[in-house]
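Record pair follows.
FIRST:
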Amino acid sequence: MARKAEACVGWMLLALGAAEAVRAQGGRQLPPPATHLEALAADPARGRLVLFGGMRRADGGSWVEVGETWEWDDAAGWRTTVGADGGPGRRRAHAMAYDPGRRVVVLVGGVRERPGGGGEEMLHDAWRYDGRRWLPDGEAPALATPQLAYDPRRRALLLAGYRSDRPGARWLLLYRRQADEGWRLVDSAGPMTTGPLRIAYDARRSVLVVPALADSEPAVWEWDGGAWRRRAAAAGPSRRTRYGFAFDARAHRSVLVGGRGEAARELLGDAWSWDGSRWTPLPAADSGPRPGPRASTTLLYDPARSRLALYGGLSSGELVSELWLLEAGEWKQGH
């Protein structure tokens, strides 16, 4: 009972903190309070980035999940749209992506603490967001570290994740959903990889790209819609986990940023591109601002403005809510 009361107090304090973050500053709202394991998606039809969920520290140091929805646009900056009481509910480690066929952002799965301290609960629901409200979108497979990507060739969402019915199992499962149909298992022979999953869909080559950089022999796996192929590169990023990864449709390459290295508390700040056969280091800007080393960050492509967006993560020993935008080879911070 005491733990339940403590959680309720924590949620109330977080709500007050979020309300404080909504104060205007120079005509714009303050950015969202920093979270961990949140999800971000681009809505090109409305020219917005949509941020949902995650967890943050409450007073006393305990972690508390949140269920707030935030949006970013270049003209107005950040703003809250749907409070914690509406929509998918508090959660972390969920997946989000835009479905252009239905013109909605789709959210799948995640994890949350059971009420009363009963341990973690893996979620298997799906939701859709049209810019005004969240609506239930059926059930989804229960997967650990779920990831979503859109396949324009088949006009379908791809859902990847590790099977959750066997503790410790790392078999990758892949599901496909077209239009309003349910999720259908399309591959159960995926690689056994180490570390949190990251994926990107290479629209130029019509393959799903899955780096396996925490494995003893780092490689890149690709799925062409029928079979997996392991691609080993002679040189590339060092071993790491929790990096940002996305396909840059303008440059026709997949991009990797940052991550956590092998050394204790080692945060990485390098960037690489993958073209299907080799890794190429991306040069750092000689001058001007740029994001520092970080892990657990989200990298995505914003098709409305043909740019990459990097959000949040762990940097310099603390969680940040920074938004960085990469345009014409130069980073600028969203304010």
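SECOND:
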Amino acid sequence: MQKLKLQLYTGEGLAPMAKTDRTYSISELAREFGCTARALRFYEDKGLLSPRRDGLTRVYFARDRARLTLILRGKRVGLSLLDIKEILDLYGSDDKNIAQNAVALKKFKSRIVALEAQREDIDQAIEMLRDGITRMEAANISVDAAPATPSRGAKAKRLEDAH
């Protein structure tokens, strides 16, 4: 599991990118990655992507494509855009990306701790709900016996009448 997380930013395990002059338009990248052009422009505004310009047209290169892969992976595991940017900006800061890997490792471990705490909270909430269901079913309360909930309009009307 930790090996997978380290692959997020080091690029280890990713298909090697050929040295190429291949370029991508904003719509090509958006389509390929299942995101919007607006999201790509947002990442550019945040300094995560740096497409070149050909007049008003954004021109993305393999480096931008690789960075987008890593941005989306980082988001998927719950890293903030600031954390992702900090990690990406350290790429190439030293020969073996030691600084980048050290920062990534610290952030990944921190994220795991947070996710484990969330999982514990979710497990407790599920258990509380199951206990409630067990008690209600033991008291022969069923979904069919519950009164219909009033429509949103009726609730708003009662609130207005109360004031």
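COMMENT: The helical segments are 2-10, 26-33, 37-45, 62-76, 81-89, 98-138, 152-162.
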